[in-house]
Amino acid sequence: MDLFKNKYRIGSARLKNWDYSNIGYYFVTICTKDRKYFFGDVKNSEMQLFVIGEMAEKFWMEIPKHFKNVKLDRHIVMPNHIHGIINIFKKCGRNEAMPNRRNEAMPRFYRKISPKPKSLSVIIGSFKSVVTKFVNDEYPSFHFQWQSRFYDHIVRDEESLNRIRNYIDLNPEKWERDRNNLKKLDKNFIFKKNTYENY
User: Fold this and answer.
1) Residue ranges per structural domain of the chain
2) For residues 189 and 57, what is the distance between their CA atoms, to the nearest angstrom?
3) Looking at domain 2-171, does it have CATH number 3.30.2130.10?
């Protein structure tokens, strides 16, 4: 789909002057560092998850348990990235936000540019952290890392939302043409699949 083609190679800077704790739907893509295949592989147009991929999906599904202002929409765990739609459906009140006391003492400029509690950046940062901790605790030799940033797209209307849902649903079918599919460039695709033989 042209709308998202080549849009998540490094991750976008956040939209200027937009409050990412605002109510709305956000399409996000999070990639592993160097696009290594940590999560699984696509066979016959279906995603086959490795153990790490299964855990990444589990932690993704648990996001609303930790962020009560969030509902999840469509998502897919791909070999080296995750697509998902996050719905921030309410603004957090002052008590829910649990402000950091040190943050209150920060100069106004730094408070302004710091991620707001329960904003999209905090949600994604928390998810990335728990996956990283799990992998590096259980499989330290893998040296798991995420790409430092993530791609986001603010969904503006119902038509766009349905188009993105369709894009996510069809991702495995289109994997052979996906720019993140490193097998078409390198038969060893960086991360050796035989690492998982002892799972």
Assistant:
1) 2-171
2) 22
3) no
Is the pTM above the cut of 0.85?
no
Query: Residues 90, 64: contact at Cβ < 8 Å?
Result: no
Q: What share of the chain is helix, strand, coil (3-state, %, to 5)?
A: 40, 20, 40
Contacts of residues 46-55 at CB distance under 8 Å and 24 or more positions apart, as own/partner, are 46/172, 47/76, 47/77, 47/78, 47/79, 47/172, 49/77, 50/196, 50/199, 51/196, 51/199, 52/131, 52/134, 52/135, 52/139, 52/142, 52/144, 53/77, 53/79, 55/131, 55/134, 55/135
pLDDT tens digits, one per residue of 90-124: 876 544 443 343 444 444 543 444 456 689 999 99
